[in-house]
Each structure stands twice: as C-alpha cells, then as structure tokens.
Amino acid sequence: QVQLTESGGGLVQAGGSLRLSCAASGRTFSKDAWFRQAPGKEREFVASITWTSSTRYYADSVKGRFTISRDKAVNTVYLQMNSLKPEDTAVYYCAADPDLSGNYQKWGQGTQGTVSS
Q: Strand 90-98 vs strand 111-116: parallel, antiparallel, or unpaired?
C-alpha cells in the first residue's frame, strides 16, 4: 500500500525558513507535488517535480523563494521554503501519481506550517 508521509512543518517568524519532507513508501511516481490550504481558502498548487527532476514548476506566489527537490535514494521529496511570509501559513500536502487529467491520486496527511509576523 502506497503511503506519503510529510514532516518538517512548524512555527517560524517572517523571513525565516522551513524544510518539508515527503517520504513515499510502496513505489515511486512519475511526478510529485506540493499543495497547500490556508484557513478558509481552497487548496492550491505550490510546486511539482518529475521523477528525473528535469522539470519543476512553481506557483507564481512562491517562485524564487521555494525549491522542490528529490532524493531518489530514500524516495523522498523536499520543499525548501525561504523568505517566508505570513500568507504562506497553511497546511502543506504532498501529492503523487497524477492521472492523465493532472489530478493527483495519492495524498499525504498534511503538515502545518505557520509564519508569524
């Protein structure tokens, strides 16, 4: 059974950094992604990365501040978040295994990231 397990969330001051991890068990996937959901808002795309790491996409709101990466040896995807802003506060979810429509089939349980002003 495939499981995605996030870790690394926490509380940080504005301008600080957090590094999120998403460990996958069971199999590997062609593409992985991070999404987030802030209180009272819909879940939104943050970043994605292909298995080879050759293609990465970022939401405009995080470009230049966040970096998605992968360590194949431990089947883990990371999200390095720098220069954090209070509006980055959200529950962050990792996702994997997109279908042909781009809808991700596998989701983690989420990890809270809170940025104080």
A: antiparallel
